[in-house]
Amino acid sequence: MKKCFRIPSYRSLAFLAVFFCAVLACAQSDPLPAWNNGAAKQAIINFVHATTDPSSPTFVPIDRRFATFDQDGTTWVEHPMYTQLVFAFDRVVQLAPQHPEWRTTEPFKSVIANDQASMAKFTTKDLEAIIIATHTGMSVEAFQTMVRDWLATAKDARWHRPYTQLIYEPMLEVLKYLRANSYKTYIVTGGGQEFVRTYAEPVYGVAPDQVIGSAIAAQYTYDADGQGVLMRPPKILLDNNFSGKPEDIYLFIGQHPQAAFGNSTGDQQMLEYTQAGPGAHLMMLVLHDDAQREYAYGPADGLPQTEVGTFTQALYDEAKAKGWTVISMKHDWKQIFSWQK
Amino acid sequence: MKKCFRIPSYRSLAFLAVFFCAVLACAQSDPLPAWNNGAAKQAIINFVHATTDPSSPTFVPIDRRFATFDQDGTTWVEHPMYTQLVFAFDRVVQLAPQHPEWRTTEPFKSVIANDQASMAKFTTKDLEAIIIATHTGMSVEAFQTMVRDWLATAKDARWHRPYTQLIYEPMLEVLKYLRANSYKTYIVTGGGQEFVRTYAEPVYGVAPDQVIGSAIAAQYTYDADGQGVLMRPPKILLDNNFSGKPEDIYLFIGQHPQAAFGNSTGDQQMLEYTQAGPGAHLMMLVLHDDAQREYAYGPADGLPQTEVGTFTQALYDEAKAKGWTVISMKHDWKQIFSWQK
After folding, report:
1. How distant is the Cα of A83 from the closest Cα of chain B, in angstroms?
2. Whole-angstrom Cα distance, residue B321 to residue B300?
3. Which of B2, B8, B251 sits opposite A26 (nearest CB)?
4. How far is A300 from chain B (nearest CA, A)?
5. Of A31, A78, A102, B28, which residue is the least packed, with the fewest Cβ within 10 Å?
6. Cβ B197–A254 below 8 Å, yes or no?
C-alpha cells in the first residue's frame, strides 16, 4: 500500500523552499573536502558518475550497488596494534583472577605480564586462543555490552582519544558519498563481526546487517526459564581474511561489489573479486606513508615493512599492474581525523 | 552529496498530479485483497500500524524493520516434495551416466530406479549425500545456470506449471505490503541459499542479499589463467533449519526480526526469537488445511500429519499459548495462486 499523504497546501511551498536550497547547496558542494585534488579523488568521483549516471554505458541499477570497506588500516588506525587485540588483552588481564592457571600458561602469561616482546611474537594460534578465551562463553547481548563498556573508556596511547575517534575522515566522506548515490556500504573486516557491529552505525553509518567480519558461531539454546538465548560457543565460524573476504561477501551479498577499499594483502582477494565483476569498478588501497600525522609502513618510498598490515611490494606491484588506485595518506588526504586541523 | 535536481517548473505540476492520484488510490486500496477479512488479516494490518505509525508507542525506526519468511510451505508449495529435492533427484538421473557406481549404491540407486517407496524413507544423511553429489564441485556461476535452466523447463505433477508459479498470492501481498512500509523482507529457508537466490528477486521481489538459507561453503581459488573463481566444495557451511534460523538471522541481520512467518517445527525457533525482541511483533504460521485448492496436512481439524512440513500438535499448542497467529489457508485466503480464480 502506498503511504497516505495529506492533500498538499502550505506544505508545497515549504517543499519548494527546501528544494531550491538543495539545488544551491548542491552546486557548491564538494563531496570529498578532506581529499586533495588528484588521481585518487578523481577516481572516486569518476566511478560514481560512471555507475550512477543513467546515460552511462556502465550504469548500475540501484539495488545492485554495493561497496565494501576493510576496517583496520582502511577506515581506522591499526597501528601499532589492532584495536580489538587491545580489547582482548585488556580482557585477559581483567579475567586473570578467575584463571590462576593463566599465570603459568602461554599466551596468557605474557599478556598478564605485559611482556611486549613476547606478545609481538604471538602466532595465529596464540591469538585464536586469546580470542576464544575472551570473546566466547557468554550470550551475544552480554558480549555487546562488554565491548560497548570497554570502548566507552579505553583510549589509545598516542592521541589519548577513544578508539572510535581514530576514524579516517576522508574514508567517512567516501562512505557517505557512496550512500548518497544509493550504494550499500559494507564493512568487510578481518576483525570480529560482533565487535564492529557495536559501533558501526554511530561511527560509520553502517547498520549491523551490513557488517561482515570474522565470526564466532551463534548457538540458540534455552535458559533455565525456557527462554531462547543466543550464546557464543568456542567456535570460529568465519575467518574473514584473505580468500575469506570474497567467500563471505558472496555468502552475505551474493554478488561482486562494484567498489572495494583495503590496505593490505588481507584485502587482495576482495579487490580481485571486485574487479572480476561486470561493468565499472573501483579498487583502492590505502598506503600508510604519513609518519607525522598517522604512521608510515609499507613498501613505497623505501618505508619499512612491518608485520601489521602487510602492504607488500608484491601487492603494490599487483595494484599497479591491474589499475588499482593507491591512496597516499600523505599526499591524497588533506585531513586525516575530524579533530585534526 | 545530495542529488542534484533541476529547478522545478512544469515538473511541479506533474508531481502534484501524481500526488493527488496517489491520495485517491490510497483511500480505496486494500493492501491484502487475496485475504478474507478475519483475525489473521487484521493481525497483519494492526502490526504494520503499530510499528510504522510515528505516534505509536511501539513505533520501529525504518532501518530496524526486518521481516523473515520461511519458504517451503510458507511462500510456496512444499507438498508432496520440496522443489529443491525434485531438482536434486532430476540431477542424479542426469549425472548417472558419469557415475556407473550409483546404479548399485544407495541412495542414488533408488533415485535412478525412481523407487518412490524407498525414496520416501531417505534419512537426512541420504539427502545430504545427494545434495553434496548434485550441488557441489562446480563454480557458483555454473550452479546458478544449472538451477535456472532446470526451473525454466520443470513442471509440477499436479498443476503442470513451473514451480515458480506455485507461490501463494496472499504471502506475496504481505511481502509487498511490508516493503511498502519500509520493512526489509528476508527469505529464511531451510532450502539452499543459492538455489533460492536464482529466482527470489523476480518471484518474491527479494534481492540476493536478503536470502538466508542452508549454504554450501564458497571457496575462492584461482583457475588455470590465474583468474579468481568461487567454487562450491563438498562442505555444508550453514544448516538453516530449527535453531539454525535464529543463529543465521543473527549472523546476517544482527537483530531480532519484528515479524516472522513459517509453517512447521523448522520455524519454531525463528518465531520464538522474533517474539523475544523488543517492541511489537508478528508471528504467523501457515496451516495447510485446504485439500481442494492446495493440500491438507497438520494437526488441526483432525487432518493427518505427514513427514513433510511437520506442523505438529505441540507447535499448534505453542502457537496458541504464545499468541502466534495460525493462518488457515482454507478460511483466511480468498485466493491461493495468482492464476487460480
Report:
1. 21
2. 15
3. B2
4. 25
5. B28
6. yes
How many Å apart are CA A14 and CA A201, to the nearest integer?
31
Q: Looking at the partner chain, which of B1, B181, B251 has a beta carbon nearest the beta carbon of A218? A: B251
The answer to whether residue B189 scores a pLDDT higher than 80 is yes
Q: Is the CB of A221 less than 8 angstroms away from the CB of B228?
A: no
pLDDT tens-place string over residues A309-337 = 588 888 999 999 999 999 999 999 999 99
Amino acid at A150: W
Closest-CA residue to A326 (of A271, A296, A284): A284
- Rg (alpha carbons) of chain A, rounded to whole number: 22
Least CA distance to A226: which residue of chain B? B272
For residue A197, list chain B residues with Cβ-Cβ distance below 8 A: 254
Which residues of chain A does B33 touch, with a Cβ-Cβ cutoff of 8 Å?
none
Contacts of B220 in chain A (CB under 8 A): 243-244, 246-247, 269, 273
Q: Do A1 and B230 touch (CB under 8 A)?
A: no
Going from the C-alpha of B200 to that of each of A275, B30, B207, B212, the distances in angstroms are 25, 25, 7, 11
pLDDT in tens, A38-75: 999 999 999 999 999 999 999 999 999 999 999 999 99
CB contact under 8 A, B272 and A5: no
Chain A nearest-CA residue for B20: A7
The stretch A69-97 carries a mean pLDDT of: 96
Q: Evaluate the CA torsion angle A185, A189, A192, A195 in order and state its sign.
A: negative
Per-position DSSP letters for B37-60, written without gaps between them: SSHHHHHHHHHHHHHH-TTSTT--
Rounding to the nearest 10 degrees, give the CA dihedral for residues A270, A275, A279, A282: 80
CB contact under 8 A, A16 and B8: yes
Count how many pairs of residues, chain A against chain B, have C-beta atoms within 8 Å: 137
For residue A233, the tally of other CB atoms under 10 A from its CB is: 13
